[in-house]
């Protein structure tokens, strides 16, 4: 939790008010996934005990539906989410601290925006991962905007925007028709390294030209050895195959 009240307000005061006003039981009337959590202490017990579990994801999804602009528009739910995701904020702020002297405020502000407009109907799972990935992407877009003259500035998912060639490369066990671009973006939001995805796309685009030594040239362009390229490519394909099943379940 944020114990500095200047970030998103006082945590003890928020917790006391939610309990005094019986807010969680009221939320449970519209969000059955919160039915067994009648106090903030009970919610925190679930959160700390099952931080990486499906139960936590279900609880967070319910809170996001309450806070989103196309849901309940509940300000208290938003404040509670920001406190619950304080660890995500501190981690991201530490990673991006060189970009702004007010990086904590920037990250918190963007995270609040992402919660408000979260597409909970299309992205009901991996909520924390999706919020974290979108927050990071937008913070980088704001603080490290891409320049046409210097395309290497900023973080890109693909080299040329064309990811359809990856259909041949990923070779999923399941042969459902996939929106590959959406899958790759969902994978990055779920934790697959964006740099590894970009390297995979660059390799497949180069291979499509059917020229000699393309892997060596791609590796050299990225400042790595071909052995490292093959290792990262294999790692990324494995991650994408694993994520594909989750993606299909999320968009089904």
Q: From N to C, what is the helix and strand string? A: HHHHHHHHHHHHHH
Oligomer: single chain
Intertermini distance: 34 Å
Spatial shape: elongated
Enumerate the spans where pLDDT stays under 50 for 5 or more consecutive residues. Answer: 146-177
As a percent range, the share of helical residues equals 55-70%
Radius of gyration: 21 Å
- Beta-strand residue fraction: under 5%
What's the layout of helices and strands?
Layout: H1 5-8, H2 11-20, H3 23-30, H4 40-49, H5 54-67, H6 75-84, H7 86-95, H8 103-116, H9 127-143, H10 166-170, H11 180-189, H12 194-207, H13 214-221, H14 226-251
Helix pairs in contact: 2-6, 5-6, 7-8, 8-9, 11-14, 12-14
Would you write up a description of this structure?
- The chain has helices at 5-8, 11-20, 23-30, 40-49, 54-67, 75-84, 86-95, 103-116, 127-143, 166-170, 180-189, 194-207, 214-221, 226-251.
- 63% of the residues lie in helices and 0% in strands.
- The radius of gyration is 21 Å and the shape is elongated.
- By secondary structure, the protein is mostly helical.
- The chain folds into 2 domains: 11-143, no CATH class; 174-251.
- The chain starts with a helix and ends with a helix.
- 32% of the residues are buried.
- Helix 5 (54-67) packs antiparallel against helix 6 (75-84).
């Amino acid at each position: 939790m944020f114990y500095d009240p200047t970030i998103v307000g006082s945590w003890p005061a928020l917790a006391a008010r939610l309990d005094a006003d019986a807010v969680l039981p009221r939320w449970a009337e519209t969000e059955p996934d919160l039915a067994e959590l009648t106090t903030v202490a009970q919610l925190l017990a679930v959160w700390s005990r099952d931080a990486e579990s499906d139960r936590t994801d279900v609880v967070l999804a319910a809170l996001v539906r309450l806070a989103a602009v196309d849901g309940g528009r509940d300000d208290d739910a938003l404040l509670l989410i920001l406190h619950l995701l304080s660890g995500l904020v501190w981690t991201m702020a530490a990673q991006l601290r060189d970009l702004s002297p007010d990086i904590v405020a920037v990250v918190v502000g963007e995270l609040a925006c992402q919660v408000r407009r979260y597409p909970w109907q299309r992205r009901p799972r991996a909520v924390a991962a999706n919020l974290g990935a979108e927050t990071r992407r937008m913070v980088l877009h704001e603080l490290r905007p891409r320049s046409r003259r210097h395309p290497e500035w900023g973080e890109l998912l693909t080299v040329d925007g064309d990811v359809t060639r990856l259909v041949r490369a990923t070779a999923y066990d399941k042969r459902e028709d996939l929106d590959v671009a959406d899958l790759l973006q969902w994978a990055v939001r779920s934790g697959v390294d964006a740099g590894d995805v970009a390297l995979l796309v660059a390799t497949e685009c180069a291979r499509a030209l059917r020229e000699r030594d393309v892997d060596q040239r791609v590796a050299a362009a990225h400042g790595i050895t071909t052995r490292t390229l093959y290792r990262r490519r294999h790692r990324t394909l494995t991650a994408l195959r694993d994520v594909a099943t989750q993606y299909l379940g999320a968009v089904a």
